[in-house]
Amino acid sequence: xxxxHGTKSGTVSGFLQNDFxxxxxxxxSEICNKAKVSPSARPSTIARDEAEALYNAIQTTKIIAPPTxxxxxxxxxxxxKGLKKEVDAEFYTVITRPPSxxxxxxFCLEVGLCYGGSLPKEEPVRIMRFANRVPLLYxxxxxxxxxxxxxxAWKNYNLSQSKESIPVGPVVIVIHMVSVxxxxxxxxxxAIAAYPEIIKExxxxxQEAGRQMASYIRKTVKAREQQER
Length: 229
Prior knowledge:
Blueprint lengths: L1 H5 L5 H8 L5 H11 L12 H12 L16 H11 L4 E6 L3 E3 L2 E11 L10 E6 L2 E3 L7 H8 L19 E9 L16 H33 L1
Parallel strand pairs: 4-6
Antiparallel strand pairs: 1-3, 2-3, 3-6, 4-5
């Protein structure tokens, strides 16, 4: 309603095209028809019931995903450089997922994984969480990053893991979410909400990093242990 009253467009159709992203005249007409609102109506005259109908119509209309060139991920080279500076490990990998969308908001996920070196072998993996380059220090258990790590089958990647728990092994996992609007669970901005689209992208990135780690373990670590025996 605030957007309708504040728009500079003279019609509802123009409002939809100019104040929203990737809405063409055809899609604007489709939304108006679904909401039973005249495309030529003045936005300032739209009542609450009509505004709610427009909102619901937008939710059920297929709209092209918004552009993702507004995102600025750290990228592999910078992340690995930072990890090598902070973590004494023998294997490093970084996975950057293609940009995706949740509730119309573009986002990108980066996952870094460090293995071996001086990292403790019998302790749960260390988790480092970031949102738009800012570290998240509290409420780890309530964060979607932790949920996605627990939901990943780490036994497939040579780590021990009990049911519904964080895996155990000499590993550091870094998850970085980049978005124009990070969905925090509270105003304290300490944990990322568990939207299905976000969980899916986190798990895909974790699985790719896990496959690379497992390949390294098979080729290098197992061979080294065999040679020592």
